[in-house]
Hints:
The protein is mainly beta. It has a single domain, classed as CATH 2.40.50.140. Strands 1-3-6-8-7 form a five-stranded mixed barrel. The two termini are 30 Å apart.
Amino acid sequence: xxxxxxxxxxxxxxxxxxxxxxxxxxxxxxxxxxxxxxxxxxxxxxxxxxxxxxxxxxxxxxxxxxxxxxxxxxxxxxxxxxxxxxxxxxxxxxxxxxxxxxxxxxxxxxxxxxxxxxxxxxxxxxxxxxxxxxxxxxxxxxxxxxx
Length: 147
């Protein structure tokens, strides 16, 4: 199957929070905003902002959680998925279908065009307690539901 891939650079909108799924996988959800600059004559102004929901799994989730903070400029590459789920409004009992595009990240890096960064490698290079690169099944159903 041909899966659409995407790469983009933008700013992280909130602090990444690491969580663990019931099957033991580590996951971090981040939201990244991109706003183009548009030249109008001698002036520049902001275009419309695009928001990307990004999910990171296991070792990538651990590293994003430890390295990325709100406001950082990041570059993201991954597969684009359409997530669909039912959201229950507990106050009214009404169920609403949510339909959202999400990027299942394979790579996340700091945008070095903004500032320098230093890599900190753990000793030994691959500690025993490090998570494997295993990923949950790459299907939209495997992605965590938004809260």
